[in-house]
Design a protein that fits this description.
Blueprint (H helix, E strand, L loop, with lengths): L2 H16 L13 H37 L11 H24 L5 H16 L18 H10 L5 H11 L7 H17 L7 H31 L18 E6 L4 E5 L7 E3 L2 H12 L5 E5 L5 E6 L4
Parallel strand pairs: 1-4
Antiparallel strand pairs: 1-2, 2-3, 4-5
Helix pairs in contact: 1-2, 1-8, 2-7, 2-8, 3-4, 6-8, 7-8
Length: about 300
Amino acid sequence: MSVSRHNFLERVRAVEDALGQSLLIDQSLTDTSHNSRARVLRNGLMVVTFSALEDFIRERSTEILAVVSRTSLKFDELPRDLAVAATVEAMRAAHSRAVMASRQGDDPVPILQGAASEIASTSSGPLSISRFALGHAGANIGADEVGNILKTLHAADPWNEITALGSRVGLGSVPLRDAYAQGMRLRNQAAHRASANIQPSELSAFCQHAKAIALGFDFLVSRAARLLHDSTAGFALQARPKLAQDISIIFIDHDGKKFVSKREGVARAMKHESDEKTAWLYAVSKARPKFEAIVLRDRSGMPMKWESTDCI
């Protein structure tokens, strides 16, 4: 599993576990001390959860750029938006990050040297697209930037595609662009407004939305990267394709006794296993030849873990 995906899921699971603790639940109106502590803790967890999603988007994009960098295409055969991101945007973002580092008392020179070397690789090779090319336009990642990452990687209609994938795996059909924007508003309130009071229901809902956004983004960005890596000259000249409908999913569900692997839309089970690890390894072995995705769900049908075999 990718490091970015593992870290994201671990952080969100910790927040979800914390939601069941009495420390986060308001008591009677007279118990002001407890309620004040609960409010501060919930606000902090909202900041942590949104930051986990932002970090995942940045870090997964960095992993994906490493895959794209290994393509056999010449740099000028890549999509124009990606070429601009790998040069102009990377230079701008690296400069901003270096200024920030300098203000914090850190040495900005290594940041600029590393970025300069990566940018130079676009003309002299071997290609190494800078992490600053995607997801580093500012301190925070807005909804538009999430969509632009996917468009830059030559994927069409990103937010509707993310929403469609979230719905297919059982995470609801709420428009996820709106959910992301709402999560960002709640996060900013929690971080900067003294009167902020994030409710357990808001935090719980955003944990589900965050997983849906991360999963949809992950499946799409992984598929886009593989297509770019494997493409031939002329691919970038074609219209951006919609990718979600061509991503097949193998689900692993627990039926109360065993872990059951099934392909989406197919009633018959592929296999029943007595333990989760064996079921996971089986599903991965079946998914890899066809570049299918795998989703492990809990007994309530909620995704707990996923994998894209386009780009591990």
